[in-house]
Specification:
single chain; mainly beta; 4-stranded antiparallel β-sheet; elongated
């Protein structure tokens, strides 16, 4: 009986240990984007978006609406409005993390009250392409913009943390 129990444990022990091992050899990172938006961007808590990314892949995050736009021929096209983030991370040999992120922050502006005929909405759009090397766990402002269209100030802060 003892021999059978030992044989069974010998067979299942590697399976139990393997459950704690990562599925891939690539590190996984948690990336927190904190977007401060407004007149005093640094004082506001901001909107926070978090994504887990395997360093061998790209993470994509989209939140918002699809807004219809009518083309001259009467055809309807849709535009993604809101927050769209494409992000990838890669660990450097010195323990820092290289991050690439494409951010598209957009919103529909209020309609012109004096317009005589309905028209397509006006969309305010802010596109950022960020390439940065950051220290893990340390919040870093990677962009600060004074938007000339909406007169808003936008700061983009991110924190990258290795999670495995």
């Amino acid at each position: 009986m003892r021999t059978a129990l030992f044989a069974l444990l010998t067979l299942i022990a590697p399976l139990i240990v393997a459950q704690d091992q990562p599925v891939t050899g690539s590190p996984v990172y948690k990336v927190d984007f904190n977007i401060h938006d407004g007149a005093d961007a640094a004082a506001k808590a901001g909107r926070r978006y978090t994504i887990l990314i395997d360093s061998s892949n790209k993470g994509v995050f989209k939140v918002g609406n699809r807004v219809p736009l009518t083309a001259g021929s009467g055809q309807i096209n849709y535009v993604d409005v809101g927050v769209n983030i494409d992000c990838s991370v890669q660990e450097n040999t010195n323990g820092r993390v290289r991050l690439h992120a494409d951010l598209d922050l957009s919103t529909v502006l209020p309609a012109d009250k004096n317009a005589t005929a309905p028209s397509n909405p006006t969309i305010s759009q802010l596109k950022l392409n960020v390439n940065a090397v950051v220290n893990p766990g340390k919040p870093t402002i990677v962009a600060s913009i004074d938007d000339p269209v909406t007169m808003r100030k936008v700061d983009v802060e991110l924190t990258v943390t290795r999670s495995n």
